[in-house]
Design a protein that fits this description.
This protein is α+β, with helices and mostly antiparallel strands. The chain contains 15 helices and 14 strands. The strands form four sheets. The chain has a five-stranded mixed sheet. A four-stranded antiparallel sheet has the order 9-12-10-11. The chain has a three-stranded mixed sheet with strand order 3-2-4. The protein is globular, with a radius of gyration of 23 Å.
């Protein structure tokens, strides 16, 4: 192994932890963040509800079967992006080499930082302390000579923990780990791997070539290297997000075109709000449509200049949906989504002019009210034909 010092920082149950932070009455309760409809999916699960077997990406129906007393709340992506920005600002206090993987996790290369800030484990401890002090949230940190081992380490002492893997304890820590923890061993591959007699990292590291071929085919030797802790990938700083999107799966397939348009406008509003939360503008809009028979279509349109304006993104999304409806009359729709691509940082006030400036001010006012009082407090008048955000939710016009 080389002498790099890599951290993997992973926020603990991030979405659920933010909800519990903002609403103290939820603390300590089995909390699920996700869609609450018949086809809803778990976006995040608190550690209290994980004890029942609830995990992210699980169908909500299954989650509530496992834990009927769970408290379910809808995601607030703009709020999570706001907290994430604070966390990433802390990362950059320690190193410029930060590779974000999502809103709640990142790799940090602190090799050069050790001269001023001490050894990597001490830097990891400082980062955990700083995150807690500035956000009220906890994070788990993995410390290792490479990205693979750092990511494994961050998961070994969760929540609110720190784990170091180095040359002195490498075999002791990773050899007993189940091979299912290794990247590249998924649900489809695992039965074949187990059938080849490979159950742990140690088994894979010591496996004969014939075993490797049975388990992984031509990728066998590469997988053995991973089980040996070998990973030369660099940390790539300022990795740009490729897209921002929002989508919804409906409990009952939509057959009415007017209802589809209303739902699409709501999704465009959410996507534009997420762009603004991250100080991004988009030069492409993508509409995703999944029919009741699970056939999925996408329609996209590029434009200039880039925008984060709700009205502009909504117009383009609706035009793309109308184009699809003309070619697929009478279709029943199971899912709709609106994505924004070809992202770029906001160039400044010159981006907006005339009516666009008025729209930008309205968007900013709506975003501010939603951040302070909740995402469902304010609804645009153009969205009032769509389903309400939830029982009893107030719907003020904007």
């Amino acid at each position: 192994m080389n002498l790099r010092a890599i951290l993997h920082v992973d926020m603990d149950a991030f979405y659920a932890s933010v909800e519990a932070l903002d609403r103290p009455e939820l603390r300590g309760k089995p909390l699920i963040v996700g869609g609450t409809g018949v086809r809803g999916v778990v976006a995040a699960a608190s550690y209290e509800v994980r004890r029942y077997g609830v995990r992210s990406a699980m169908p909500m129906r299954e989650a509530l079967r496992l834990c009927p007393q769970a408290v379910c709340v809808a995601p607030r992506m703009s709020r999570y992006a706001q907290v994430s920005a604070r966390v990433f600002a802390i990362f950059h206090e320690f190193t410029p080499l930060v590779e974000g993987l999502s809103l709640d996790e990142a790799f940090l290369d602190v090799t050069a930082s050790q001269t001023l800030l001490g050894e990597a484990a001490a830097i990891g401890a400082q980062i955990r302390h700083r995150i807690r002090a500035h956000t009220g949230l906890t994070a788990s940190v993995g410390v290792a000579p490479n990205k693979l081992l750092a990511k494994i380490a961050s998961d070994l002492n969760k929540p609110d923990g720190l784990c170091r893997i180095g040359a002195d304890n490498l075999r002791e820590v990773i050899d007993p780990l189940p091979v299912s923890r290794l990247f590249g061993v998924g649900k489809k591959t695992l039965p074949r791997v187990l059938a080849a007699g490979i159950h742990t990292f140690g088994d894979l590291r010591k496996a004969a070539d014939e075993q490797l071929w049975r388990a992984f085919g031509k990728d066998g030797r590469a997988m053995r290297d991973l089980a040996d802790g070998i990973d030369d990938r660099p940390v790539i700083a300022r990795r740009e997000e490729k897209s921002v999107s929002a989508e919804r799966t409906f409990a009952v397939d939509l057959c009415d075109a007017a209802r589809m348009r209303s739902e699409l406008l709501r999704l465009a509003d959410r996507t534009a709000s997420r762009l603004r939360a991250q100080d991004l503008a988009a030069a492409k809009v993508v509409v995703k449509i999944r029919r009741g028979d699970f056939t999925t279509f996408t329609r996209q349109r590029a434009f200039e200049p880039a925008t984060q304006d709700t009205a502009a993104i909504s117009r383009m999304a609706q035009a793309l949906l109308d184009e699809w409806l003309r070619g697929h009359p009478g279709s029943a729709v199971r899912l709709l989504g609106v994505g924004a691509g070809e992202l770029q940082c906001i160039p400044g006030p010159g981006l907006f002019a005339g009516g666009a400036l008025r729209d930008a001010r309205l968007d900013a006012a709506v975003d501010d009210i939603r951040r302070r009082f909740g995402g469902d407090l304010l609804t645009r008048a153009s969205l009032l034909d769509a389903d309400p955000p939830g029982p009893g939710a107030p719907r003020n016009r904007a």
